[in-house]
């Protein structure tokens, strides 16, 4: 579900992030992120869902597979942010 485009006071497009705060392209995890904590995964999903970043751009920027990203989306949809915990995803996949 795409959100309506929003601009902050600096004219930057933003979406509401997973913690309820505005999220701009500058706020996204660095492209060289190796440690994917819950918040970072949720931010990337929120950015794609909100139209801040295209799926293709997210996959290329973060060197993700479509399957990884889709798993993150499904985990959020089914269990919320806590579903993104690595141990939880392994447990829930059964």
Key features of this structure:
94 residues, CtrA inhibitor SciP, three-stranded antiparallel beta sheet, disordered C terminus, 4 helices, globular, DUF1153
What does this protein look like?
The protein is mostly helical and 94 residues long. Helices cover 44% and strands 9% of the residues. Strand 1 (6-7) and strand 2 form a beta hairpin. The radius of gyration is 13 Å and the shape is globular. InterPro entries: DUF1153, Trp_repressor/repl_initiator, WH-like_DNA-bd_sf. This is CtrA inhibitor SciP.
Tell me the span between the first and last alpha carbons: 27 Å
Spans of at least 5 consecutive residues whose pLDDT stays below 50 are 87-94
Q: Gyration radius, to the nearest Å?
A: 13 Å
Tell me about the biggest sheet? 3 strands, antiparallel
What structural class do the secondary elements suggest? Answer: mainly alpha
Strand content: 5-15%
Question: Count the strands?
Answer: 3
Helix content percent band: 40-55%
Average pLDDT taken over every residue? 87
> What sequence of helices (H) and strands (E) makes up the elements?
EEEHHHH
Tell the overall outline: globular
Order the strands across the largest sheet as they lie in space: 1-2-3
Count helical runs: 4
InterPro entries: DUF1153, Trp_repressor/repl_initiator, WH-like_DNA-bd_sf
Protein name: CtrA inhibitor SciP
């Amino acid at each position: 579900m795409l959100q309506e485009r929003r601009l902050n006071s600096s004219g930057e497009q933003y979406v509401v992030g997973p913690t309820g705060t505005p999220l701009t392209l500058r706020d996204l995890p660095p492209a060289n992120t190796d440690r994917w904590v819950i918040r970072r995964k949720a931010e990337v999903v929120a950015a794609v869902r909100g139209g801040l970043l295209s799926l293709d751009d997210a996959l290329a920027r973060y060197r993700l597979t479509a399957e990884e990203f889709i798993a993150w989306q499904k985990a959020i949809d089914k269990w919320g942010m806590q579903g993104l915990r690595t141990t939880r995803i392994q447990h829930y996949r059964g």
